[in-house]
């Protein structure tokens, strides 16, 4: 994105402002102003904690964003991914797509502590996660958007539901489209949201099959990844999903797809002679379009089955029910 001229950057900014000002389709009980009177300092608190965390460790931005994805894809955006297991409940943290992989919980804990001090038992962990993911993207150089609020927190979580709903790195494009469509998300949403992989990293166990077995990988790219990730062992070793700019929210991810330098099989499926190829080409050449579509898709994803009204609760600690 650094190569954009001033004119193109101004154009992108104007387009984003239009998105922010335009009314967005959302759950009828969610609104950006939900805490305007009950917790007016909420946005500033969230931003300050996320900013401090990213200054200490920029990789936490991708971690927080991933938490939001994995929350919303399992029974909706209800903060259930944050719950620790209990003797009576096997939660989502140890699901196949989450175990030894999800990070950033301490960032949400720190935000919750400060929010509780400012406005006791008022703001849900689900809403904190939604705001934190937006701020993480913006601080990494990506777009901003209006976060609608008013979600309540789940009382429980489900390991089985997480295993059934989270897309594995082995998914085909057809399977990904089916999973996203079940959440009300289109192919455009899928392709734009996958651009979140312009930041973050993956474990060797997730990308080993792709760099060893798939034919659609640049040989030199695969050779280096094999050096880091042996055929046996080293499952926890990590590599950036976007080697070009791993802590910058930009279009490098899509350019990597076109060069066959994707770390995950499921990512390369977006540019493999299928229906998403045109969108990948479009985003790789047009950062403004990616930003606009990503922001719109994040709003849509944040509307997946929220708990509102009298459902759920407002947790005082995000890792456990009250």
UniProtKB/TrEMBL annotation:
Molecular function via GO: heme binding; lactoperoxidase activity; metal ion binding
UniProt-annotated binding residues for heme b: 197
Residue sites binding Ca(2+) 1 per the record: 71, 74, 76, 78, 80, 92
Keywords per UniProt: Calcium, Disulfide bond, Glycoprotein, Heme, Hydrogen peroxide, Iron, Metal-binding, Oxidoreductase, Peroxidase, Signal
Catalytic residues in the record: 70
EC top class, as a word: oxidoreductase
GO biological process, one term: hydrogen peroxide catabolic process
This enzyme's EC code(s): 1.11.1.7
Family: Belongs to the peroxidase family. Ascorbate peroxidase subfamily.
Protein's name according to its UniProt entry: Peroxidase 1
Organism from which the protein derives: Zingiber officinale (Ginger)
């Amino acid at each position: 994105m650094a190569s954009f001229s001033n004119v193109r950057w101004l154009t992108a900014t104007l387009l984003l402002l239009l998105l922010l000002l335009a009314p967005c389709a959302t759950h009828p009980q969610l609104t950006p102003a939900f805490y305007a009177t009950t917790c007016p300092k909420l946005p500033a608190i969230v931003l300050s904690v996320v900013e401090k965390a990213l200054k200490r460790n920029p990789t936490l931005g991708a971690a927080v964003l991933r938490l939001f994805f994995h929350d919303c894809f399992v029974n909706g955006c209800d903060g259930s991914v944050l719950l620790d297991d209990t003797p009576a409940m096997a939660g989502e943290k140890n699901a196949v797509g989450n175990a030894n992989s999800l990070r950033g919980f301490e960032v949400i804990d720190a935000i919750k502590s400060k929010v509780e001090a400012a406005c006791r038992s008022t703001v849900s962990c689900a809403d904190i996660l939604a705001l934190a993911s937006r701020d993480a993207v913006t601080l990494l150089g990506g777009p901003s958007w209006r976060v609608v609020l008013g979600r309540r927190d789940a009382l429980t979580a489900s390991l089985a539901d997480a295993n059934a709903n989270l897309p594995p790195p082995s998914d085909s494009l057809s399977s990904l489209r089916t999973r996203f469509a079940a959440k009300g998300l289109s192919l455009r949403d899928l392709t734009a949201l996958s651009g979140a992989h312009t930041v973050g990293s993956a474990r060797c166990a997730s990308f080993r099959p792709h760099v060893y077995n798939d034919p659609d990988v640049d040989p030199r790219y695969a050779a280096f990844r094999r050096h880091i990730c042996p055929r046996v062992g080293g499952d926890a070793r990590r590599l950036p999903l976007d080697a070009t700019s791993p802590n910058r929210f930009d279009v490098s991810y899509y350019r990597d797809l076109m060069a066959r330098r994707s770390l995950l099989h499921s990512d390369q499926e977006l540019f493999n002679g299928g229906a998403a190829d045109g969108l990948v080409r479009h985003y790789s050449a047009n950062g403004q379009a990616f930003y606009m579509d990503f922001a719109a898709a994040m709003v849509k994803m944040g509307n997946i089955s929220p708990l509102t009204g009298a459902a759920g609760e407002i947790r005082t600690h995000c890792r456990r029910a009250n």
